[in-house]
Amino acid sequence: MTDMLTRFRTVPKAGTTLDTPLIGWRYEWTDGQRLWNYSDDTARAALCYRRPSGINRPSRNHQAPHHRCVCGFRVVGDLDVLHTYMARRARFTEVVGLDRERPEGATGLVITKVEVTGYVTPAVPNRQVDPPFTVRADHLRLLKVYAPDWMDRDRIARANPEVPIKPLGELPRGFPGLKSGPLPEPELSISQHGDEIRIVLGLGPAIVPTALLQDPDVAWAVHGVANPGRSIDADVNTVIDRIVNVVRPDIAFKADQEAAAFGIAWTLDMMANSAESK
Ligand SMILES: [Zn+2]
Q1: pLDDT tens for each residue of 79-97
Q2: Where are the domains of the chain?
Q3: Which of 14, 130, 137, 168 has the greatest number of C-beta atoms within 10 Å?
Q4: Angle between helices 254-276 and 216-226 (to 10 degrees)
């Protein structure tokens, strides 16, 4: 198994074509029946998907994954890495009150064991995007599914007859974010009241005076966090210093402050865009 981890950790920056498959782990969305990326087939080929402003997007049409883009199916070689990532992700979602990745209709997550073949590249070099030693793959095949006990595993099995559906308890550890029941509805919301903007995060309300947003540096940082480019860290820190620490000084941990910065920036940016299009 150590050899497999080494293979995940040594994928060269510009990518490589695999001689033999990699076996790894990823999570998958489900509605309790269908598995999001495998509704037609247990094998998938990656396509480059568009993002609003495209992190490092090198060209309009390229084979996915591309080492200077963010596309490809993400797979890690180590369940501990996946566990750490999902714990951070679950806390982030709890603070924000919204999981932006969650597809419409999805009610939960399962852990999947997958096989990777073909062309691979390493993680996107930006700590906001991928856990360490992620491999981004162009060809993915589903081998096994581990679903928590609250899901009807027989129902998932009937919809996905080619793969074994196992209890999550068969894996050596639990996974934060998989929860004991269906995911809650999003809480994140925004509304304007006179010269104050009320943003309801998962952690509770943040009342932002509109005067705070009139500083062009703050407005620019909010836009940068909501539409990430290459240097997102500077924008995140500005939103933390100039908004989060002012309106919610009780949020103590840096990771929680970051999550609050994202929730605030997403909603403010959405409100600004909808005001512009009116
Ligand atoms: Zn791409």
Answers
A1: 999 999 999 999 999 999 9
A2: 2-170, 189-276
A3: 137
A4: 100
Angle CA 77–140–12, to nearest 5 = 55
Gyration radius (Cα) of the chain, Å: 20
Q: Give the three-state DSSP class for 18.
A: coil
Distance 133 CA to ligand 1 centre (A): 19
Contact between residue 115 and residue 189 where contact means Cβ atoms under 8 Å apart:
no
Tell me the pLDDT tens digit for each residue of 148-201: 999 999 999 999 999 999 999 999 888 888 878 888 888 999 999 999 999 999
- pLDDT for position 2: 61
**Residue 2: CB atoms within 10 Å:** 7
For residue 54, is pLDDT > 60? no
Angle, CA 231 vertex, CA 227 and CA 232 arms, to 5°: 50
What separation in Å is there between the alpha carbon of 207 and the centre of ligand 1?
Answer: 38
As given in the structure block, the two tokens for residue 148 are 């928590």
The closest of 148, 202, 155 to 180, measured between CA atoms, is 148
CA–centroid distance, 51 to ligand 1, in Å, is: 9
- Cα–Cα distance measured from residue 189 to residue 78, given in angstroms and rounded to the nearest whole number: 36
pLDDT band at 147; cut points 50, 70, 90 = very high
Length of the chain: 278
- Cα 230 → chain centroid: 17
Ligand 1 centroid – CA 50 distance (Å): 8
